[in-house]
Amino acid sequence: MPKYVTKKDCLKHGFIKTKSGICKITLLERYYLKGWLEYGNEKYSAQDRFKAAEALQQDYEMSRFMLISASGARQKIDCNMANGIEELEFICEARNRYFEAIKQIPDEFLSVIHKICLEGVEPELPNGLSDRRKLELSFSYKRDLCRGLDRLVQHYMLK
Fold first, then answer.
1. Which band of pLDDT confidence, cut at 50, 70 and 90, is reported for residue 6?
2. Which of 7-16, 73-82, 97-106 has the lowest mean pLDDT?
3. 155 pLDDT band (50/70/90 cuts)?
4. Is the dihedral of CA 125, 130, 133, 138 positive or negative?
5. What is the pLDDT of residue 69?
6. CA–CA distance from 77 to each of 23, 74, 81, 134 (Å)?
């Protein structure tokens, strides 16, 4: 017998109700909708940070790092040399853009940005902490995310 799913469970797993129906949103979109991308530099808006994070995501996905990290994953190789060279150039350009963007982010913000923007998971909080300390750490992760995204906004605005 299927388990009843509550509204709280749906929200926890990233589902929201819109005018067109129920849809799944990413963790980054959830942060944006909750106003958690407002904690950075005042000269950048939450929308600027969201667009910079999306640009980083796009460069990461186009660089095909996921295929390399998958164990035993093999990609079909096209025997047509022209298509293979064009695809390889496309991947190399995406990787160059990704690495240039990552260089702009300080090391202390990089892990939070990677977790939330690229992996789509919440940073883990250590066990055994009080509720107040968990809230403080959660808020500091959100601040670090915004401060790192501010660097990405600067990087992508220059282009």
1. confident
2. 73-82
3. very high
4. positive
5. 46
6. 35, 9, 10, 48
Whether the CB-CB separation of 35 and 27 falls below 8 Å is answered with: no
* Dist CA 4 CA 23 (whole Å): 18
What token pair was written down for 11?
């929200």
- Cα 27–28–32 angle (5° rounding)? 115
Q: What angle do CA 138, 143, 148 make, to 5 degrees?
A: 125
Amino acid at 113: I
Q: Are 77 and 50 in contact (CB under 8 A)?
A: no
Question: Which residues neighbour 119 within 8 Å (Cβ) at sequence distance 6 or greater?
Answer: none
Indicate the residue type of 26.
T
Amino acid (one-letter) located at 121: V
DSSP assigned state of 40: S
Q: Are 146 and 50 in contact (CB under 8 A)?
A: no
Q: What is the pLDDT of residues 92-129, one digit of tens each?
A: 899 999 999 999 999 999 999 999 999 999 999 888 99
